[in-house]
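During the reporting period the student researcher (J.K.) took over the structure-prediction task from the postdoctoral fellow and processed the backlog of single-chain submissions. One of the processed entries is reproduced below for the supervisory committee.
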Amino acid sequence: MSATSVSPAYTSAGAHKRALLFVSRAQARVMAYFRSRRHRWLAKEFADCRTVIDIGGRESMWYTVGFSPRVTIVNPEPVKIVQPGFEYIAGDGRALAYADGSFDLAFANSVIEHVGTFEDQRRFAREMLRVGRRLYCQTPNRWFPVEFHYLGFFVHWLPRNWFTYFVHRHLTLRGVLGKPTRQQSLELRSEIRLLSRRELQELFPGCKVKRERVLGCTKSFVVWR
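J.K. obtained the following structure tokens:
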């Protein structure tokens, strides 16, 4: 195809892909900044934890943490090839097959908002409290103005039945650039349930709640003990 014969639709599709890639990279840089700051605190606070259960995570995250515990990673499907010091186990974070206090630290990073209903989140929290002698659970703040899964302002504050495919597709940056199908939109909306500080305190009684702020607003929480 010659340069003079490129259709507008083809050019537009390429521009959308480049824009989405740019947005994804910019978001990754922002998240990497907060992650590195969070990891410095994590390494300092939990340096004495030698055994960790990471619920819903990946071993790559632990390469930048700054301390090296033995990590058991629980996901719906295990990964067979892993680095020394890591183990993948197929399992459900809402019903863990471990005895009480089996690990020095129960860890979950941006996972609890993906496990289902509030009752599912309650079961997830209960299992973290049960199997870990200490606990770390990070999750976005429902009341932060930007929703990072969609890259939209305020849309996640709408009642669930108002957050339609039209809102996702046309009023969020990822919707405009990524052009999700109706099925993809439905699956994402069904998967995400963001939490407030009050709900986290209900789910994790007796734990501390650390705020991560951007321009004075709380972007996310870390629940810990």
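The committee noted the following: The chain has one domain: 3-149+192-224.
J.K. will present the remaining backlog at the next meeting.
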